[in-house]
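Hi everyone, sorry if this is the wrong subforum. Our group has a chain we'd like a structural model of before ordering constructs, and none of us has done structure prediction before. Sequence below.
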Amino acid sequence: MNLANNQLAAKKIRMLVLDVDGVLTDGSIYYSNSGDELKAFNIQDGLGIKLLQGANIEVAIITGRSSNLLSRRTNELGIDRVVQGREDKLTALNELLADDSYTMDEIAYMGDDLPDLAVIRRVGLGMTVANANPTVVEYAGWQSSRDGGRGAVREAAEFILKAQDKFEHAIESFL
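Answer:
Right subforum, don't worry. Here is the predicted structure as tokens:
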């Protein structure tokens, strides 16, 4: 993972596509006695997504599972491009981008496990979390220092914004 190459790749990014379980969450799935599914989303990751959106970098989701919880969270964050229940994530990405002018070099993808490998290898900047599967780490161009569901997406967002010299402007309203 070469920092200079990753920064060059990050300068071109116009869209960050995220996996959910293991990236936006810690990968745990909780079930209540009544059968309800529960997941925890990190609030810092949510702000990172908002910072990207404010800098005109689109955020999308592709996940192998389907969940009403995810629909609620993506609605809260204003993420319109959400593909759920798709194991073939590269095909899902190509379908997601079919009507757009994005090139693969302008896409970053963050995943954590083997179903994410094909996309990580194909996009301009393949990203992963600190606790990712070792094979994914081997192929990713960039790895967070934080685990999935623990601020890894925020770290990725800040990396992209800093590479594009947009970070200072993104945080101005907080100063």
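For your construct planning: The radius of gyration is 15 Å. The domain at 3-162 is CATH 3.40.50.1000 (Rossmann fold).
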